[in-house]
Amino acid sequence: MTKRDAELKEAAYLEAEMNKELVESDPYRLKHHIMPPVGLLNDPNGFIQWKGVYHLFYQWMPFKTGHGAKFWGHYTSQDLVNWKHEPIALAPSEWYEKNGCYSGSAVDAFGKMHLFYTGNVKDENGERETYQCLAVSEDGLHFEKKGVVAELPEGYTAHFRDPKVWEHDGKWYMVVGAQTTDLKGRTAIFSSEDLMKWTYLGDVAGSHTEQLGEFGYMWECPDLFHLDGKDILIVSPQGLKPQGMLYQNVYQSGYFSGKLDYESAKLTHGDFTELDRGFDFYAPQTTEDEKGRRLLFAWMSVPDQAEDKHPTIKHKWIHNMTFPRKLSMHGGKLIQKPVEELEALRKTEEAVPGIRLQAGEQHQTAGTVSELKLENLAVRSGLSISIKNNAVLHYSSEEKVFTLTRTSYADGKPESRQCMLEHLSSLHVFVDTSSIEVFINDGEEVFTARFFPEPGEKSIMVSAEGEAAFDLKKWEL
Ligand code: FRU
């Protein structure tokens, strides 16, 4: 560890220590989600199960609740439920990363954990440079920086970052989020025999094609993997214009499903589908664990989306991760389910089978940190679930539209996100203090959002507009 490295880490620990009480006294602090000890958390990085242990790193700015020269914070877990905060993995101490150890990924090779990340550099005039870097660990806790392993290829701006690495047929591949010099979003791809020397192969996919048309000026955080017979490319494109119910957030996150031809390094793919329909979901990253499951974490926020108005910044912290989700393909669609390990969080159970509500009738319950399941749903006309008097889930069986409305933390007005939904059969909802994750029809659609009810508010109210029948289960977590 260099002197600069030690100083930066020390300053970050001190910042966390000094603000511990203020941060932890926030009534909006979550109970079971991954958060920063102080400052700002953004993308999940380096998600891997390594020698049995789950590692999740995160983009971390310890010194303020805004963005800047990011560190890699580090959590580990045996079970995806209980997480331990580990020593900082990477601090932006070297010339090639002095303005941030930006997002990246982890792989196991030769028994060592390899972290690939972007070294972000800005000169005095704010001109950006970008380097794809490597750090290696033998114990999963201490990381030795190996420096720059891939330079910026011609034809791209310095918005070239977030390497995601995987192995295929004995060779290594890396996708990188990219922007061409004429401002088109791309996913670039490299290959390597030894993880040290990388050869640029081209773009696997990108905007401004005949198929996609104008589809963003920058594609951040790519992830490419094989799942249930398909090659899936997840990206977070910037610059999509709202289109009806679609692309309502400042930036999007979604996937293309298709086939990657490793010879030509091109992905033949279908349309882009947003992964989440809520307000707060970005930069997801997946890994395959030792059980062979494809798991996903995402940042529960979106860059540049009223971050300066966020209610938690007065407590000197901001943002968190989603719960981990398991991915599968079903009928050409990516399905997301909360990992089953989360069941270990359940404490008290309330089960009310066979609820029938007539127009205007309500079923009242309550919870602070809760899991809610409505199953065998039959809805005529409309169903609403009001949560803590601040967020409302609504399904209209006539319009076939599902809506999440919350009270905006920026201006106090109601705001909504929606998606089309043919049929509603089940709802699985996690409420953790100031976050909500709604899994519809066993993960066919998901809505993720932060919300900020009055602290202490517990009400959960299900009401019917026409007629509704369902079985209800609720657990305090
Ligand atoms: C996405 C992102 C990445 C970048 C990181 C910096 O939220 O902008 O592209 O690597 O955050 O923190």
Automatic annotation (TrEMBL):
What keywords does the record list, in alphabetical order? Carbohydrate metabolism, Cytoplasm, Glycosidase, Hydrolase
The pathway is:
Glycan biosynthesis; sucrose metabolism
Q: Is Hydrolase a UniProt keyword of this protein?
A: yes
Domain Glycosyl hydrolase family 32 C-terminal: start-end pairs? 341-471
Cellular compartments annotated: Cytoplasm
Q: What class of enzyme is it?
A: hydrolase
Q: List the Pfam families hit by this protein, alphabetically.
A: Glyco_hydro_32C, Glyco_hydro_32N
Keyword presence, Hydrolase: yes
Q: Name one GO molecular function term.
A: beta-fructofuranosidase activity
Give the catalysed reaction(s), semicolon-separated: Hydrolysis of terminal non-reducing beta-D-fructofuranoside residues in beta-D-fructofuranosides
One GO cellular component this record assigns the protein to is: cytoplasm
Q: Which family does it belong to?
A: Belongs to the glycosyl hydrolase 32 family.
Q: What protein does this entry describe?
A: Sucrose-6-phosphate hydrolase
Q: Which organism is it from?
A: Metabacillus indicus (Bacillus indicus)
